[in-house]
Every structure is written in structure tokens, then in C-alpha cells.
Amino acid sequence: MNLSSLTHPSSSHILLLFLSIATLQGLKGTLGACHVDDEAGLLGFKSGISQDPSGMLSSWKPGTDCCKWAGVECRIGNRVTTISLYGQPDKPNSFLSGTISPSLVKVQNIDGIYFQDLRNMTGTFPDLLFGLPKLQFVYIRNSKLSGPIPEKIGKLAQLGALSLGGNRFTGSIPNSIAELTQLTQLDLSQNLLTGTIPVGIQHLKSLDLLYLHHNQLSGPIPDFFSSFTELRILKISYNKFTGQIPPSISSLAPTMTYLELGHNSLTGKIPDFLGQFKKLDTLDLSSNRLSGTVPKSFANLTKIFNLDLSRNLLVDPFPLMNVKGIESLDLSYNRLHLNQIPPWVATSPIIYSLKLAGCGLKLNLNDWKPTETYFYDYIDLSDNEISGSPVSLLNRTDYLVGFWASNNQLKFDMGKLRIVKTLKHLDLSKNLVYGNVPKEVTGLEKLNVSSNHLCGQLPATKFPASSFVGNDCLCGPPLSPCKKV
């Protein structure tokens, strides 16, 4: 063997090496580009889009690698596996108009479709989903899809998540939805669905999340919750459900963190077992016809952050609670006579919303000194017997959005009230407020200071006369002109 041939390769060896590298690079380029079927399917989808003002699909160009297009992911070689297109609700131009093209069925390896907040997509439930054998996750939320959810929905038995919230689907929830036994998330909220909840949903034993809120569902809530061992979040508020809270909901105590049954027509008492939901973060039973007392067992809800029992028929006594840090509390408009704001409210370091309208409060607001006011967004103390002044309270809030205290006996100089820039709603009507209306109210969206003892010339505002009538001597538009001295 010639040793020099090993240490000094011939020109033919070098040429062969270059050719090999070039071939590999060519192969790599071929492997890196997405599959021709996937490109055709995605471009077909784009052809169904009539408006894309923010350029969401601007990178989707023929002849380029579709695995590198915005919102497209290829996890298996050069095959597209997910499409994720997200609008941004706070940006008016961030939307897509058009329909979901059936050509997407060509993207056969897709396991996830995420079309969220696109806002302007129309058409019916996309039948192409039934032709995608690997599909596991469908999120088509906050758009304008309409028509019924097809009865054959049960054929998508491999789905782990189905989220169609925020569209315009009508009709009833198909019975075949019971066949989607792999589901961990089912979201049909914010549509126009009618009828009852199919009892077959009890077969979806792996559900972690069930959203049916903001529809027109009716009848009693099925007593089938003992089937669910994983359910953490149940939102069925804003429907037309009747009857009592079903006993089997008690079986959700070990896992439940969010339970929202508000804005229905539920009757009967609040079940004592709800006090055993020790992981509960949010409980909303508002705007029903629940009666009787709030269970003493609520003392066990030490971790609850959001409690809304407003607009029911609940009576005294309200139980002592051991809440460490409430974020929002609404007990408004029941038949309660609290006299004082509960002490655990004053000590909460994180509270941002306090609504105790019509709760029989009898206190001097000067004497109420909460530990923390920094986070307050909303305070509603309307229709009580509260005296004193809110000035020291409100002047310590930097992010207040709304303050409602109509129909009390508040007595203070309105000119000393600091109107923060975030404040949008202020209602001080039917009190004993005096002084001038400060010019800072011009930045509010809603204002009512009627039926007080205010005086002087009004600042130029957009508010109607009804916002100011019934005062001692206010003048200027929209009221009568001020008298010349």
C-alpha cells in the first residue's frame, strides 16, 4: 500500500468528495421542503381567505418551504403536523375573512388545528375534519361559523380537545358527542345552542374542562357528574337551566377549581357540600333563584378568590368565612342584612372587585379602613345605609374603573375627590354630596350625580341632563344657563 495516497488524496478523490457533499446537500434541500400535498392543501386554504389585513398569511408563498410559513409546524420530517393561526383581539386589523377550504384535507398528517380569534371566518362546521385521520386537537374559536354541529361528530373519536366556542352554531348538542371518549377539553360556549345537555356526555370520563356557558340550553342540569374524576373547570352559566343543583356535583370536590352556574333559573338551596370544594378558586351562582342561607360549610373555602352569589333570594345569616385573600366578591341584591363589610374583605391584600349593593350595610365609610386599596377596580355599595365620605378610600386607589354608591347617605365635598385616569363609571346619585362637579369628570364614560346638593357651573361634558338633575344650584349645559352676577 502506498502510504502517500492515504495522506495526499488524488484529484479524483477530491472530486468524488465534492460530488458526494453536493448530492447530500441536494437531498437535504429536498427533505427540508414540505410535501407537495401539504403545500397544495395550505395554499388551497389561503385561496379561501378574502381578507387578511394584518398579513397573517403573507409568508405562505408557492415554491417556498411551507414548513417555514407563519403558523405552520412540521414535526415529522417534511410533513405539516399543526396549523396555528391566532388573531389579536386588541388589534382591529388582526383577523381573517373567508371560509375554511376543504383542500385542507390534503394535509393528511395534521394532528392539530388552532384557528383562534380569527373573528371573521364564515361557513358551516368544516366537514374536511372527518378526512384527517391523525387529528387530535381542534380549536376553532371566536369566529362566525354557523349552522348545526353535525350529528356525525362522534366519528372524530380520536379527538383529545374540541373547542368551538365563540361562534354561531345553532341547534342541539348531538348525542353522538358521547363517542368522543378521548376528550379532555370540550368547549361549545358562546354559541346559540338549544335543547338539553345530552346525558351521554357522562361517558367523557377524561374531561378536565367543560364549557357550555353563554348558550340557550335548558332543562335540568343532568345528575351525572359522578362519572367525572378529572373535571377541574365546569362553566355552564348564562343558559336557561332550571331545577336544583344536582347532588352528583358533590363528587367533583377533590378536583374542581372553577364552578360557574350563574345566570340561569336554578332554584332550591345552595348545597352544603359546596363547602367541601377546598381547591375552589371561583364559585359563581349569581342571577338564579337560590334561596335559604349560605351554608356554614363555606368557612372551609379558605382558598377561594372569586365568589359571586349576587341576585338570588338568599337570607341571613351570612356565615363566617376564613378567606385568606379574596380577589372579587359580589353578594349584591339578595335578602341579606350584613350591617358591616365582612372583616376578611378588609384584610385581603389582593382584592380588586367588591360589590355589596343592597346588602343592608349600615356603616360610616370613614371608619372602614381596608389594608390594601391599590388593586381596586370596581366598588359597588349602592342601595345601602352608608354614611360618611368615600374620599379617603377612593383617593388611595390608582386604577379604579367603577365606583357605584347611589342611594346612600354619603356626605362629602365632591371637589376633594380625586378622579383617576382609569375611572370610567361614577354613580353618586341620591346622596348628600355637596360642592362643585370637578372638570376631571369629562374623561368618564358614565356619570350620575343627580339628587344631591351640588352647586356651581358644570364643566363641558357629553352627559345628559339626567346625570345632574335634582341638585341645589348646578347650572350650565345640559342644564339651565348660569345666572350672570
Automatic annotation (TrEMBL):
Subcellular location: Cell envelope; Membrane
Entry keyword set: Kinase, Leucine-rich repeat, Membrane, Receptor, Repeat, Signal, Transferase, Transmembrane, Transmembrane helix
Residue ranges constituting the Leucine-rich repeat-containing N-terminal plant-type domain according to the UniProt record: 37-74
Keyword hit for DNA-binding: no
Main localization of the protein described in the UniProt heading: other
UniProt superkingdom: Eukaryota
Membrane topology of this protein: Single-pass membrane protein
GO annotation, cellular component aspect: membrane
GO terms, molecular function: kinase activity
Signal peptide feature range: 1-26
Matches recorded under Pfam families: LRR_14, LRR_8, LRRNT_2
Location of the Disease resistance R13L4/SHOC-2-like LRR domain: 132-240
Entry-linked InterPro entries: Leu-rich_rpt, Leu-rich_rpt_typical-subtyp, LRR_dom_sf, LRR_N_plant-typ, LRR_R13L4/SHOC2-like, PGIP
Family membership: Belongs to the polygalacturonase-inhibiting protein family.
PANTHER family cross-referenced by the UniProt entry: POLYGALACTURONASE INHIBITOR 1 (PTHR48059), RECEPTOR-LIKE PROTEIN KINASE 5 (PTHR48059:SF19)
Protein name, per record: LRR receptor-like serine/threonine-protein kinase
Lineage: Eukaryota, Viridiplantae, Streptophyta, Embryophyta, Tracheophyta
